[in-house]
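[Protein data]
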Amino acid sequence: MIVISVANQKGGVGKTTTCVNLAGIFAHKGLRVLLIDADPQCNATSFFAEKPFEPSLSLSALFESSFSPKMNLVHPTRINNLSIIPGGFHLAGTVSFVSQYLEPHARIQRFLENNKDHFDIVLIDCPPDIGIFTLNALRASRWVLVPVQAKRMALDGFTLLKHHIDLMRSFGFSLELLGGVTTQYDARIKSQKEWQAHALTVFDKCHLGVVHQASEIAAACDRGELLWEQTVKKGRPFTEHLHLAREVASRIGVSLERP
């Protein structure tokens, strides 16, 4: 089982869109995928559920005093091979509560260790901060994928995140930067072209691709659809996400050469 956190300390950079569409492509290729919505905004969950889950059926249950790594929190989705641990809006209110208990930053890790034989890939959609939920995700992960916009604040968000990755590595955690992907890119804007050049320098050989700004992506998000569920699959948004999925798969040693 390979665990990947999709993270950036800057919000609005396309983390959830990247996460859910990668999950859909991996599942469509026959991999057993678990998507964990660790963001209290629950945007990833909204792609697969019309209403919030009960706290006892969501990720929130891992942060209760009755925590057990054997909890049954995994739910099927409409996509074959893709399951989800949904988030909950009440996640935001559990930070001070869970901090009273032992190992508050290892809850996701312990749960996944108990379910490691059930999935090939786990993708964790992280909130735009370095709080308890992101730290749980990073501790459970082997890799970190960073969506960034070609803008200064988004790249600053990555710089802050990388500091924490390096810090966790210094404590002996096997956490690696998988790479970055530029999202919502518009080459017609001069400043974005300049910041994209900077992003290529920052990520160097681990820049995995570009996803351009596109109305198809916004429309799919509004409908709660994955890009490969759309009728037209040969457009640039889908092909760019497919390219990203292949780059990720290549770097983590997973084959996507399936039907």
